[in-house]
């Protein structure tokens, strides 16, 4: 039977404390590392740039030679390849500055007259000169272990001439849909009492989106031995997600199986929908048991599976996409539960000021209500609800 | 030479008006459609569920038979397979409800005694019964053209037994890095005056992240003919991004080439950094010319290339990931420019209340300043800047 209902945050904490992140890494070409988590500190092996460079198109000069030049007066320097007293050299943005030079006159402040350049600005040494290592200094730690790599970070690695780096391995997540009413997408029609499997597919796609590698198994019947077998034959997994069979009915075997193969930490959580969620550990690996009801299932995925995946894969907590919106109707909370109320935005993608329309739906069984929703308004355990006209934060459903 | 500096929003509007979205679609298995844009309205071909289902584990009954039952009084019904006056049948959450029944008694309100069930609740017809089509009604339009598909939407398609759908083709974006100082990542060392190519790689990775297919070309020299050739030999592209050669120097040929092959719409934009950005159209296809300076380049990507990609690919404007933070120092704007100031967050991923530390960097040439930044604070054209202690919105750099 159901255990006591546990507070959602406490359940999350208990669960996340019970397993360790993956330690193994893989070495990949940098261009394949967008969104991956770097598993080593990266120290710059070279200066970037490796030479003094012009910050402007113009003429490299000795600053001393421009003394007295200005809007109304000029100095004239001879155009040359090398720069010494009395000469200057053509430079382009980013090109090396010849040895003798210590400043660059902008094109706008110079007039080329045959072999000579008339200069109308007085420069101080260093003007328009990018020093060696001004971008990245050799020996500097430029990226730290645990950082999520963005294209701009990969560009920095490229600037250093680094071609491969170590990133943490992606967690392999085995997804096990259970339920004898389920049939696979391969079936072309349904008999009475049958529904197409959707939760397992949804879980697998969220796993992929959130940085894991999903392995979606075939549908397993409501039979403890078969559920056990499905887990035992996939012990290479880093995490398990089951769907269905978590309630109090005669056919709800999943939490029992988790308990018999490992530790059932939590069964019954203060999230609404999602109360029948169960959490456990098998062979040191986290197991999230989604309720079969699809809305409850997605809440369990967002609240527990994503957090577990992030811990396993060293993935930092990214802030959710959120907008602020004004409720067009009341949404009730449920005392003792963190309530995930689905809302539709009148103007999606408006960051603020859109209307949030509560989706009046009866139950956790209405999958289409999630698809119609743009996001969740999360009502804390101790809040009675939000009123029409209140401004709320909407966590967009990815 | 440079055209007049154009206001950033005007430039964007002019540019986006000048080309049309892609019209072609592809048909894909639903499990490959996460993040894709649906290219047709989807009408439900079946009811979901196709039968009346139990919303609870318990016993299916005729509601009339429970008249008078309650906490202190009970009625006794005979357990049977079919439900008629005086009998009830065992049902599980989600299982079909036998024909004669019109309500389900929860397990908690019933006690099984041998072949009989004692019932302690009076039910109204429909109690704990999910009607046929309660989730999705046959004939209902369940997903509309232009919607970005999320895992929960794909689950809805699966529930309908739909296995393939039409989505808009991903735009093919040809990325052309230009500049004779550039060398490819394949080089194991740099000579004086050389730097590794980074902007093209960064642009290609952002294109992929934002829903396009990048084709990153080899580095092209600063030679108008060679730039022209690179474009001409890739006219299967839906969009072009060039990097470098957009300034006023002798070697800055890119905007001229765009003008000679098509229309140069904009050269010089009020974004800082990023003023030398150029925008044009070749063969009806958008061309974004990123300045060679990497920070200017990324601003041009975020501001123009992403918008163009979204328009081409029918991708809705997703709201950015944003946080609110308090500035730990002043950041100056630049009159007439939309200024993209890089900031580091003291506590990244905190949604509000973190300190935003302005990155004091001299110029647009410092790639590492983007990698060190968590996001941009965008200062509008008519704002002088933001002061230390002000709360600002930080657009996180993906």
Structure, explained:
The structure is a homodimer of 398-residue chains. In chain A, the strands form eight sheets. The first copy, chain A, has a six-stranded mixed sheet with strand order 7-4-6-5-9-8, with no helix packed on it. Chain A has a six-stranded mixed sheet with strand order 16-13-17-21-20-18, with helices on both faces. Chain A has a five-stranded mixed beta barrel with strand order 22-25-24-26-28. With 398 residues, the first copy, chain A, is of the alpha/beta class. Helix content of chain A is 18%, strand content 30%. In chain A, helix 3 (199-209) packs parallel to helix 6 (294-312) and helix 4 crosses helix 5 (254-261). The first copy, chain A, has four domains: 8-23 and 170-312, Molybdenum Cofactor Biosythetic Enzyme, Chain A (3-Layer(aba) Sandwich); 25-48 and 134-168, Molybdopterin biosynthesis moea protein, domain 2 (Alpha-Beta Complex), CATH 3.90.105; 53-130, Molybdopterin biosynthesis moea protein, domain 3 (Molybdopterin biosynthesis moeA protein, domain 3, Beta Complex), CATH 2.170.190.11; 322-396, Beta Barrel (Beta-clip). Chain A has helices spanning 8-17, 151-159, 199-209, 224-232, 254-261, 294-312, 367-372; strands spanning 25-29, 42-43, 53-54, 58-61, 75-79, 87-91, 103-106, 110-113, 116-119, 129-130, 141-143, 164-168, 172-177, 182-183, 195-196, 213-216, 239-243, 263-267, 271-272, 278-282, 285-290, 322-327, 331-332, 338-345, 352-358, 375-379, 385-386, 391-396. Chain A has seven helices and 28 strands. In chain A, a hairpin with a 6-residue loop joins strand 24 and strand 25 (352-358). At the A-B interface, helix 2, strand 15, helix 3 and helix 7 of A face helix 2, strand 15, helix 3 and helix 7 of B.
């Amino acid at each position: 039977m159901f255990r006591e209902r546990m507070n959602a945050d406490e359940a999350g904490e208990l669960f996340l404390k019970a397993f360790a992140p993956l330690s193994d890494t893989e070495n990949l070409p940098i261009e394949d590392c967008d969104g991956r988590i770097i598993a080593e500190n990266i120290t710059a092996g070279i200066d970037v740039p490796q030479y003094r460079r012009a910050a402007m198109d113009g003429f490299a000069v000795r600053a001393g030679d421009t003394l007295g030049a200005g809007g109304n007066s000029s100095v004239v320097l001879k155009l040359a390849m090398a720069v010494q007293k009395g000469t200057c050299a053509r430079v382009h943005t980013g090109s090396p500055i010849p040895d003798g030079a210590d400043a660059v006159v902008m094109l706008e402040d110079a007039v080329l007259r045959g072999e000579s350049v008339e200069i109308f600005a007085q420069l101080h040494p260093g003007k328009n000169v990018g020093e060696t290592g001004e971008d990245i200094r050799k020996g500097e730690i430029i990226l730290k272990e645990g950082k999520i790599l963005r294209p701009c970070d990969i560009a920095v690695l490229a600037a250093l001439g680094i071609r491969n780096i170590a990133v943490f391995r992606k967690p392999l997540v085995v997804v096990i849909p259970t339920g004898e009413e389920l049939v696979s997408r391969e079936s072309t029609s349904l008999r009475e009492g049958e529904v197409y499997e959707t939760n397992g597919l949804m879980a697998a796609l969220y796993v992929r989106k959130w940085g894991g590698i999903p392995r979606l198994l075939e549908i397993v019947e409501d039979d403890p031995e078969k559920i056990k077998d499905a887990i035992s034959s996939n012990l290479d997994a880093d995490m398990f997600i089951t769907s269905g069979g978590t309630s109090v009915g005669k056919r709800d075997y999943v939490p029992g199986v988790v308990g018999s193969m490992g530790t059932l930490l939590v069964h019954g959580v203060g999230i609404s929908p999602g109360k029948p969620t169960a959490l456990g550990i098998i062979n040191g690996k986290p197991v999230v048991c989604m309720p079969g009801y699809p809305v409850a299932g997605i809440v369990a995925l967002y609240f527990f599976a994503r957090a577990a995946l992030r811990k396993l894969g060293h993935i930092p907590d990214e802030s959710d996409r959120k907008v602020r919106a004004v409720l067009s109707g009341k949404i009730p909370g449920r005392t003792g539960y963190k309530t995930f109320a689905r809302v539709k935005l009148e103007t999606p993608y408006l960051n603020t000021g859109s209307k949030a329309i509560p989706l009046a739906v009866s139950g956790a069984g209405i999958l289409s209500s999630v698809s119609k929703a743009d996001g969740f308004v999360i009502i804390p355990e101790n809040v009675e609800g939000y009123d029409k006209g209140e401004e709320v934060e909407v966590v967009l459903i990815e």
